[in-house]
């Protein structure tokens, strides 16, 4: 809950918006918020109450703004200095919406008419430019959106990161696409500003409660959670600086192998007690009739599975050599569960004196002195954690459907609350 609810009016168009704002928000920040709502140039924007301009350096409370006040937003006449000067930077922590609404980076006044909403120059682009770089070097929506339309790889990257935005821009003219982009960016900026303001108000409230009562349980819990998050963030930043690779996905270890001339991809798992194959693979390689059902049972570990029995000798070909293995055969997995075609467990790894050389990326067999390279991501299917056969377009379409479903669910929830 915020301290003030004020009505903001654009003096030139008559458009108005009623917003909840914290009393400790500065007039400068409020002006930047207004510029984002009404599409005005923040450099010349002034806020007025009862005909008097509010000083940008003051908070709304210090400037005399009260709950229910009407605040007018008006562009002041531009000065005509002998030499054009760049506008003063926003105060630290300010919220600058000008780049979203027609204002480009600071340039000489003669380059474009203030508040005209026109880009000051052509888009900045170089071959292979990434989406983030395109946004950073082209703050004006017209320049950025024109790059999206002209370069397919930028549009594809946008589809990957923001599928809903990509869908909204499809088939639109340049002017309409610019308008859509501008509106969506302003919505996000306003929401972020209000969220920041609410967090600041709550922190001040908790400070006051703690000052009145050092043992206030709610205040202690609030600041305790802030301290906990600070420690977690500190570890996160340290980790990202020293070993960021830990945030990547770890590819499991697979090697190419054959059983009865049938190629398979064997999962090398030194944490598994025994070597196993699926019933499907046993049938495929022609060994299902050799299952000794006296060794049936249940395999327990991270999950559980039914063991149909054991095949005592399986000639496993890895590289140019054959390695006899004793293999337990697992029943078909439950619906929705992932099947493990073949797993080379610790029992056979020890029996054949294998070494997992992660530095060289090979499975080394001491007997025969043979080295088998682990498979790369491109060689493994998606069920094995790889990218072989991955359809980016299909994945994007599924993501778009999921996000549209979530949006509809949120909209239905809002309607129920309003009714």
TrEMBL record:
<keyword id="KW-0378">Hydrolase</keyword>
<feature type="domain" description="Ubiquitin-like">
    <location>
        <begin position="4"/>
        <end position="80"/>
    </location>
</feature>
<feature type="compositionally biased region" description="Basic and acidic residues">
    <location>
        <begin position="394"/>
        <end position="412"/>
    </location>
</feature>
<dbReference type="Pfam" id="PF09668">
    <property type="entry name" value="Asp_protease"/>
</dbReference>
<dbReference type="InterPro" id="IPR019103">
    <property type="entry name" value="Peptidase_aspartic_DDI1-type"/>
</dbReference>
<feature type="region of interest" description="Disordered">
    <location>
        <begin position="381"/>
        <end position="419"/>
    </location>
</feature>
<comment type="similarity">
    <text>Belongs to the DDI1 family.</text>
</comment>
<dbReference type="GO" id="GO:0004190">
    <property type="term" value="F:aspartic-type endopeptidase activity"/>
</dbReference>
<dbReference type="InterPro" id="IPR021109">
    <property type="entry name" value="Peptidase_aspartic_dom_sf"/>
</dbReference>
<protein>
    <recommendedName>
        <fullName>Ubiquitin-like domain-containing protein</fullName>
    </recommendedName>
</protein>
<dbReference type="InterPro" id="IPR029071">
    <property type="entry name" value="Ubiquitin-like_domsf"/>
</dbReference>
<dbReference type="InterPro" id="IPR000626">
    <property type="entry name" value="Ubiquitin-like_dom"/>
</dbReference>
<keyword id="KW-0064">Aspartyl protease</keyword>
<dbReference type="GO" id="GO:0006508">
    <property type="term" value="P:proteolysis"/>
</dbReference>
<keyword id="KW-0645">Protease</keyword>
